[in-house]
TrEMBL record:
Residues 10-246 form the Threonine/serine exporter-like N-terminal domain. Belongs to the ThrE exporter (TC 2.A.79) family. This is Threonine/serine exporter-like N-terminal domain-containing protein. The chain crosses the membrane at residues 111-130, 136-156, 168-186, 229-246. InterPro entries: ThrE-like_N, ThrE_Dicarb/AminoAcid_Exp. One of its GO terms (cellular component) is plasma membrane. One of its GO terms (molecular function) is transmembrane transporter activity. Keywords: Cell membrane, Membrane, Transmembrane, Transmembrane helix. It is found in: Cell membrane.
Length: 247
């Protein structure tokens, strides 16, 4: 019985880490089932949404629930869970070692420092603007505005811990900076600068996962992820619209 409970706890922890960090539901469920099968449990039953996981074993009184309270995007953690699962399947680590590795991974902070994230936002903003519009003149200012907008998003998200408000504030800053740069003659196309600068804020992962979940038959988590992506897009759009209305 102790091993059965440990298997379920390991499955739930692995699934929670994956869902919290941007995995689609089908991949998380597949990983959880593989862990159970490699532990000698062939009939694991689970029900998963983006807010919780329920796991049980038929003909057993053992079942557990795991609540999911946050959602971020760290695909490195998702990859690490899959790597640990493969090691467990190959008998390279024990169940206890597997659980300890997952616990350590769950408590780990993001690996990339703040300055590297800002640099990544700049490198996303400028080249994508060029790809969409072919405008090479505004490449530099778009990278600068995108980096500053992401900085506002990062700092406000840490202070407020409300994702949609953070995106709203960041898009306002992006809109104001873009308007000022064009008015001062440092940039040519206001639309191109804004389009490129908001790219680091665009909810691409939730939207992709929403479509994949729906196609895989997860008709609860799929639309929920779609609503999450829609709210993020609305926050960005409202911020830019606020700038155009009052500035």
């Amino acid at each position: 019985m102790r091993d059965l409970k440990k298997v379920i706890k390991t499955c739930l922890l692995a699934g929670r880490i994956m869902i919290e960090n941007g995995s689609e539901m089908s991949r998380a469920e597949d990983t959880m089932k593989r862990i159970a099968i490699n532990s000698g449990i062939d009939d694991l039953q689970l029900f998963g949404t983006i807010t919780g996981l329920i796991v049980s074993v038929p003909n057993s009184l053992t079942s557990q629930v795991e609540q999911i309270t946050r959602r971020a995007f760290d695909l490195e953690k998702v990859s690490a869970v899959n790597s640990f699962s493969r090691e467990y399947a190959a008998k390279q680590i024990t169940l206890d070692e597997f659980y300890e590795k997952l616990s350590t991974l769950d408590e780990a902070t993001p690996f990339f420092p703040f300055w590297l994230q800002v640099l990544g936002a700049a490198l996303v903003s400028g080249p994508l603007m060029v790809a969409f519009s072919g405008n090479l003149v505004d490449l530099g200012v778009t990278m600068l505005v995108g980096a500053l907008g992401y900085t506002v998003f990062y700092l406000s998200n840490r202070l407020l811990n409300v994702k949609y408000i953070s995106e709203f504030f960041a898009s306002i800053v992006i809109g104001i900076l873009a308007v000022l740069i064009v008015r001062m003659g440092w940039g040519q196309s206001l639309d191109d600068i804004i389009i490129g600068s908001v790219m680091p804020l665009v909810p691409g992962v939730p939207l992709t996962n929403a479509v994949r979940d729906i196609l895989n038959g997860h008709l609860v988590s799929g639309p929920a992820r779609g609503v999450e992506a829609l709210l993020s897009a609305c926050a960005i759009g409202f911020g830019i619209a606020f700038v155009f209305r009052f500035i």
